[in-house]
Amino acid sequence: MLSIFFSEKSWFISSIILFSVLSRKALSYPEIHFVLAKGLSFITRRQPEIVFDAPWRVEQGEPIPIVCIINDAHHYPIELLNINVQVFGDGFQQDYSLSDIFTEHLYPRHIKDVYWYALGYIQPPEGFVGPISINPQIEFTLKGKRPLTRNRTRIIYTDNLPGLSHAPLRTYIAREPLPTFDGWYYGDAHWHSDKTRDQIEFAAPVEIAAVFSKSIGIRWLAVTDHSYDLDSPLDDYLSIDPDLPKWRMLGMEIKAVNATYDDLVVLRGEEVSCGNAKGQNVHLLVYGVPEFIPGRGDAGKTGFEFKFEPDLSLQDVLERVQEYNGVTYAAHPNADNSFLGKLILNRGTWLDADCELEGCYGLQFWNGCTGKRFIEGYKRWVRLLLEGYRRYTIAGSDAHGDFNRIRQMKFPFVKLGEYMGSAFGKPRTCLYCGETLNESRILDALRHGRAVLTDGPLAIFTIQNAHGHTANIGETLSVGEPQESVTLKFQIKSTEEFGPLSKAVLYRGDLSRKIETIELELDLNTIPNRYEHQYQHSTTAHTNCYFRLDAKSQKDGYEYRCITNPIWVMSGN
Predict the structure, then answer these.
(1) Quick one: pLDDT at residue 151?
(2) Domains in the chain: how many in total?
(3) In terms of Cα–Cα distance, which of 378, 383, 384 is closest to 366?
(4) pLDDT tens for residues 285-304?
């Protein structure tokens, strides 16, 4: 595999990846060993990538899992000498040795694997609540052939990715679970495992995601690796293996995790590259389909053949998914593609015509952080609703590993970056699945829009007509005539972790006039209980319409947000 790093083909492919990353940065552990030509790269180091990670939150009294991941040690083998972790918070500091954290005997250990990891646990002080800093340190020696670097002891903190802060990991120890209601379950609808491994990134195994999910409070997650990564051999991300060893291995790993835990469900999904209405490559989240769907149009695997047309059109993929009664959502539909990304990799953006196709259930516009793409996606979703299309929305982190903060390739071969505001489970989708959580109920909730998006508080509501019939989020309530009275009942909840509730806004979408207006705005800064609120509102439909609810909380100057899917109110006439 080492020859891949310096071959003429790899130089061309590297250029392609350079352009593609400029068009959309990967939220991932960055791969630093793929070079442009003859070793040209400002970020390459002659040692394996070493990354520590931990969940961004745990509940009081629970141990904090921590993982050490070592990538590309088959090129740069090391001798692991020791790992120490310092944990400090308000009023305390504790030091942990390797034997305190890891149950297995790890050192001295010669590591020469393509990918190696070890999972351990830290027990924080009893009764502590609030933010803590976790400062891991690894001591090792390089065991390569270069005499100037061989056997020299090195110490790194948090990671050895060049140009990053190497700052301690930050974990919040919460007094309470994530705010929720009976029958509602949190999940991450867009996450990448270690099978997403290519020229610019690597990630974390499903096993680690399962452990960290339980710590965070996530009850389900969808593993949505890229279609153009899942068809590669295990040891060569530039080639294609028709036997699909990655796809098969991922299936076995997911099956093993689901057999291990009875309170966590892992969905096998896929992020498929396919063609939009203009024949450009866009990404589609697919759930509930047992077969692999090819999509390598924007993978940069074709070398000098310059073939970047989609393998399948969006329509083709939707029809294939419908054969299995699967579910699809547009992944980051307002992705910001640069001119070069469009020119070189034929990457495009989701068009309204794509979102309107039968079989597309909705949009995943909350993709990691909020910002310009979030706002544009939010507006597009509302526009589709007003046009009469019942398109739902879900949220996902799009993290490739990244359980504490985002570490990413900012400019290939030149610069890395990191962002503290997003991670696995930030944001998340809360689904209504009733008393039992399983794959079938999760898929059914995704299919029917029984979903709420949040990075903090949780808000749900119902609507009841004059005859006592009630509709929940994602459903339709029938009324005998437009002037019939309906009653909306809200439940909104936050916790100390996300701060007191500040505002709730009820929106009405008039499907006749195609206008969305504010039906009701609640200032929650003056309510007696700032962390939990119930409210009842009566109104008339006037015309066919929908209602949806937004709620917010605030803490330390940051505003957390919750967005529900609509409930439609339709006249029987």
Answers:
(1) 72
(2) 2
(3) 378
(4) 999 999 999 998 888 665 54
Q: Tell me which residue of 171, 467, 448, 494 sits closest to 327, measured CA to CA.
A: 448
Structural domain including 528 reads: 456-571
Q: What share of the chain is helix, strand, coil (3-state, %, to 5)?
A: 20, 40, 40
Over the stretch 391-417, which tens digit does the pLDDT of each residue have?
999 999 999 999 999 888 877 778 888
What tokens does 489 get? 């009942």
Q: Is residue 425 part of a domain?
A: yes
CB 460 within 8 A of CB 562: no
Q: Is residue 313 part of a domain?
A: yes
Q: With a cut of 80, say whether residue 105 has pLDDT above it.
A: no
What's the rounded Cα separation, in Å, for the pair 77 and 316? Answer: 45
Instruction: Return d(Cα 240, Cα 132) in angstroms, integer.
Output: 44
Roughly how many angstroms between the first and final C-alpha of the chain, as a whole number? 67
The per-residue pLDDT for range 525-571, each reduced to its tens digit, is 999 999 999 999 999 988 999 999 999 999 999 999 999 999 999 99
Q: Which residue has the higher pLDDT, 253 or 414?
A: 253
Establish if 438 belongs to a structural domain: no
Bond prior to 242 in cis (omega within 30° of 0): no
Q: What is the mean pLDDT of residues 493-518?
A: 98
Q: Do 328 and 293 reside in the same domain of the chain?
A: yes
Does residue 390 share a domain with residue 489? no
- Cβ within 8 Å of residue 273, ≥6 positions away: 226, 227, 228, 281, 282, 283, 295, 296, 297, 298, 299, 310, 311
Residue 297 and residue 399 in one domain: yes
Check residue 162 and report its DSSP letter.
Answer: T
| Residue 474, φ and ψ in degrees, nearest 5 | 90, -10
Q: Is residue 445 a part of any domain in this protein? A: no
pLDDT band at 21 (very low <50, low <70, confident <90, very high): very low
**CB within 8 A of 65, min separation 6: which ones?**
54, 55, 119, 120, 121, 208, 211, 212, 215
Same domain, 294 and 416: yes
Q: Are strands 362-367 and 327-331 parallel, antiparallel or unpaired?
A: parallel
Could you say which of 392, 416, 432 is where a domain stops? 432
